[in-house]
Specification:
It catalyses: (2S,6S)-2,6-diaminopimelate = meso-2,6-diaminopimelate. One of its GO terms (cellular component) is cytosol. Belongs to the diaminopimelate epimerase family. Its main location: cytoplasm. Pathway: Amino-acid biosynthesis; L-lysine biosynthesis via DAP pathway; DL-2,6-diaminopimelate from LL-2,6-diaminopimelate: step 1/1. There is one protein chain. The chain has 322 residues and is α+β, with helices and mostly antiparallel strands. It has two domains: 164 residues, Diaminopimelate Epimerase, Chain A, domain 1; 140 residues, Diaminopimelate Epimerase, Chain A, domain 1 (Roll). It is built from eight helices and 19 strands. It has a 19-stranded mixed sheet that branches. The protein starts with a strand and ends in a 5-residue tail after the last helix. The protein binds the ligand N[C@@H](CCC[C@H](N)C(=O)O)C(=O)O. The site of the ligand N[C@@H](CCC[C@H](N)C(=O)O)C(=O)O has 18 residues, from helix 3 and helix 6. The ligand N[C@@H](CCC[C@H](N)C(=O)O)C(=O)O binds next to helix 3 and helix 6.
Length: 322
């Protein structure tokens, strides 16, 4: 039996499994079974917590940050391995706290190993998790940024492909601007958009509508709406690395003077993206743990599901409600 916790970040949902000693054989079949929304728990992906020292990919992580003890092993719902997940890493932070392995209160920081390097997580007073996502880049270089595109995307129902910009967040993204929100709402993303040139490793595709600027507690911020078709999943309610890619592409299209901070609306909520100095980017947003249970890989049976508060070490030590 596999003990799991179900969580989500802006409704991008995950099955989280603690496997500190690398004892679980997380096969693609098992990932597909766990993520199946009819036969399994149901999720966009599986997140396995494992000690960095047990994985070959963990060696690079520990060389960069010897204290990055825990590794986020991320799998898409189709069983494929992904380098990184921006919503997932926030939920991973909440999971690590839930397991009692770290406390991000009082200014604490958690360094997490991923296949896209070390990510550093803190928690804001309001409860949002803030992640230094590290370095990003436009794979097409200055030429692509100058032109505004280096690829083309075609979505079902469009009469012609449209220009798009590739953005590398450790995992691949392709961002397309739409004319208005009506066009965004009308999109049919049941089939994967066709991307040319076709990226060998596939890509996540973000379809965005810039919404201008607003004055907020974070100063003048850019705003945009986005839908996403994720590699290895299909359309999801949110994609954290995708929101970073979208904000960075729209900021580049806007030219000099564009805000560094962006509020990105996705079907599952809102996140905040900030371009940092040194070619780094920060992602902030909510992370929720919803319920816990056990899964039988042989029978595909989910049982013993309980609210997370019932099994949380932190909740166990908290005083009972009056
Ligand atoms: N939803 C994630 C991204 C998950 C991986 C992606 N589907 C890929 O294959 O690159 C996010 O929040 O970033």
């Amino acid at each position: 039996m596999i003990a799991f916790v179900k969580g989500h970040g802006t409704e991008n949902d995950f099955v989280l499994v603690a496997d500190p000693d690398d004892a679980l054989d997380l096969t693609p079949d098992l990932v597909r079974d766990l993520c199946d929304r009819r036969r399994g728990v149901g999720a966009d992906g599986v997140i396995r917590l494992v000690a960095s020292r047990h994985l070959p990919e963990g060696a690079a992580v520990l060389a960069e940050a010897p204290y990055a003890e825990w590794f986020m092993d991320y799998r898409n719902a189709d069983g494929s391995v992904a380098e990184m997940c921006g919503n997932g890493v926030r939920v991973f932070g909440a999971f690590v706290e839930h397991l009692g392995l770290a406390d991000l209160g009082q200014g604490g920081e958690l360094a997490v190993g991923t296949r896209a390097g070390v990510k550093r997580i803190t928690r804001e007073p309001g409860g949002w998790y803030v992640v230094d996502m590290g370095e990003w880049r436009f794979p097409g270089g200055d030429d692509a940024v100058g032109r505004g595109y280096d690829a083309e995307v075609a979505v079902a129902g469009w009469t012609a492909p449209r220009p798009a910009l590739s953005v590398d967040l450790g995992n691949p993204h392709t961002v397309v601007a739409l004319a208005d929100e009506a066009e965004l709402d009308a999109l049919d993303l049941t089939a994967a958009p066709a991307v040319r040139p076709e990226p060998a490793a596939g890509t996540n595709v973000e379809l965005v509508v810039p919404l201008g600027e607003a004055v907020t507690e974070h100063g003048t911020v850019g705003r945009l709406r986005m839908r996403v078709h994720e590699r290895g999943v299909g359309e999801t309610r949110s994609c954290g690395t995708g929101t970073c890619a979208a904000a960075l592409a729209v900021r580049a299209w806007a030219g000099s003077g564009a805000p560094d901070t962006w509020l990105v609306d996705v079907p599952g909520g809102t996140v905040r993206v900030r371009a940092l100095r040194g070619g780094r980017v920060e992602l902030a947003g909510p992370a929720e743990l919803v319920f816990a249970g056990t899964f039988d890989p042989a029978g595909g049976v989910v049982g013993d599901a309980r609210g997370v508060a019932a099994i949380s070490p932190r909740a166990a030590s908290a005083p009972a409600a009056p």
